[in-house]
Amino acid sequence: MMRVLIVDDERNIRLSLQKYLILEHIDSESVESGERAIAYLAQESFDAVIIDLKLPGMNGQALLEWIQHQGISVPVIMISAHGHIPDAVQALQAGAKDYLVKPFDPAELVIKLRSLVEDGEKVSGNSPVPGKNGLIGVAPVMERLSAQIDKLAATDVTVLLTGESGTGKEVAAREIHRRSAHPDEPFVAVNIGGIHEGLIESELFGHEKGAFTGALTRKQGLFELAGKGCLFLDEIGEMPLPLQVKLLRVLQERKIRRLGGLKDIPLSARIVSATNRDLEAMVREGRFREDLYYRINVFRIELPPLRERREDIPLLADHLLRNLSSRMGRPKPNLGPEVVEKLCSYSYPGNIRELENILERALIYGDGRNIRPEDWGFPDPKAVEKREAPPFGEPPENPCLSSTQVPQSPGVITQESTALGSLEEIEREAIREALARCQGNRTKAAKELGISRKTILNKIRTYGLSC
Ligand SMILES: Nc1ncnc2c1ncn2[C@@H]1O[C@H](COP(=O)(O)OP(=O)(O)OP(=O)(O)O)[C@@H](O)[C@H]1O
Ligand SMILES: [Mg+2]
What we know:
Layout: E1 2-7, H1 11-23, E2 26-31, H2 34-41, E3 48-52, H3 60-70, E4 76-80, H4 85-93, E5 98-101, H5 106-118, H6 140-153, E6 159-162, H7 169-178, E7 187-191, H8 197-205, E8 206-207, E9 219-220, H9 222-225, E10 230-234, H10 241-253, E11 255-256, E12 265-266, E13 270-275, H11 279-284, H12 290-296, E14 299-302, H13 313-327, H14 337-344, H15 351-365, H16 381-385, H17 423-437, H18 442-449, H19 453-463
């Protein structure tokens, strides 16, 4: 029996279509939003999808793009309101197979469905191929960002990526490199905040044998290793002032010299920097050199917080879940519509990394088949018992919850918690575990928790943790 998915926010249309189709021996599921449709399409196979172009939240066009992006080969029929035919035509150009204009005769829909399915286009919704694009997102802001990347990737312009922690700055940097003229050259990422201050210079510029005590051999620096590729200077705001002067000189002169060396080596790599700090404020406060700021900020890309592109949450959740489960060597569990809805209602102060942490936690503590909201919080049963607020209620205004709430995910950590005696213990334990997993690397642990390096350093001090 043919099986189709109907995506329309008008309940009457969904119900009347379903009634009509069943009389024609066509099985159907219906959903009211693009987000819910994704949850279905990621798990189940359909012979065709009928999509209303005008949907609240993720619109029909975005859903069509998601289907294409995922490589799901299901024929799509678009439904457009009278007066919006140009949009339907645009959808055809984007890969939809056909369209109908409201109000339409359901018999016409059935004819179209039968002819499409007889064309032999069978869906394989269970095995979408991974997207070609590393930067997942169909929200308008992401489309604009992707177009910007396309433009600048063709040049060798210096780029500054800004945005909150976990918004995908590194993913964007890799995407710039991937779309550049030299994608086969190295992509070298260096976390300025993660290298011991005394070592940054020799890491970046390299050194000659005997340049300083301990320099037993000659070493190429990261600028050199990047060749004609890309050098990604992550957490550039952490760069100490004396080194900022040296970096400025390198960028001005496009040459580097190894420590203790005499020879100039031309700099061929593109420089992409990233920060989640307010560099302009740092410049005003004299903590970041203004001249360097202008050098690195030739082309600026601001990565939006996840809460400003909620329509991408189902896509990202699906993508992250696929990666996480394959890394764990497990089948990808189900992500039911209710779960998708819950995921979409949260504010994610730790952005995509926090979403990833939540899903990872759910995978570890879940039953292996389904992703369940009860597995999202802290695994400590005491903590779960003490939970007062629902795990995914109204998003908190501030990344730091009020003193009466408990953490909603590993990435949300309270500043001061007085209401719950054990909250500090839970937080301390979460940080201790993250540090252990990251072999004491505080920057990595902070990233994993979706908090800033500064916060983790404060917490380590407060809790007297050693790493
Ligand atoms: N558009 C995207 N598509 C797919 N995955 C993404 C996307 N953006 C981010 N991610 C995933 O989210 C996580 C965080 O991304 P990334 O490390 O690039 O963030 P970031 O902005 O560099 O964070 P930080 O400021 O903490 O360093 C990674 O696991 C990454 O794979
Ligand atoms: Mg990063």
